[in-house]
Amino acid sequence: MINTKNFDYINVLDKAADGAYLRHEAISNNIANATTPNYKRQDVAFEDALRASILGATEGSLDKKVHNANLSNVHPKVYTDVGGTAYRLDGNNVDPETENIYLAKNQLYYQGVLNSISHEFETMKTAMGK
Fold first, then answer.
1. Nearest C-alpha neighbor of 64 from the set 56, 76, 72
2. How far apart are CA 124 and CA 7, in angstroms?
3. What does R_g of the chain's alpha carbons equal in angstroms?
4. Which has fewest Cβ within 10 Å: 17, 40, 43, 63?
């Protein structure tokens, strides 16, 4: 994390990219274990913590909220979905078709975050006259 006001949005986007990367790994692992008996799907929680750190910051514009966001407590967390729903008799709750949809959605999200980071750096480069 870069500690200067100029990188506030990049720091937030960096946390979002970390979460999306970890989610990609979890979904890929789910797909790989779709036929493993008693395997329970995993997912990653980070959006709510990221949103809370931004919206819980000072009142004012989004720029001020992003600047005052406490990102040190935002860490993506892998959790196991043990909701009791099993798609097969062997206790596995992974639906490969659904996981592939989640994977595609996450890939689009991750690409959007990376594009936003790239845009932030291009904006800084333009502002510096480079």
1. 56
2. 9
3. 18
4. 63
Using a CB cutoff of 8 Å and minimum separation of 24, what contacts does 2-6 make? 5/67, 6/124
User: For residue 57, what pLDDT is reported?
Assistant: 63
State the pTM of this model: 0.84
Taking 60 as the threshold, does the pLDDT of residue 48 lie above it?
A: yes
Alpha carbons within 13 A on the beta-carbon side of 23: 25
Sorted by sequence, the CB contacts under 8 Å of residue 93 that are 6+ apart come out as 39, 40, 41, 81, 82, 83, 85, 86, 87
Residue 84, φ and ψ in degrees, nearest 5: 85, -10
CA 114, CA 126: separation in Å to the nearest integer? Answer: 18
Beta bridge partners of 78: 44
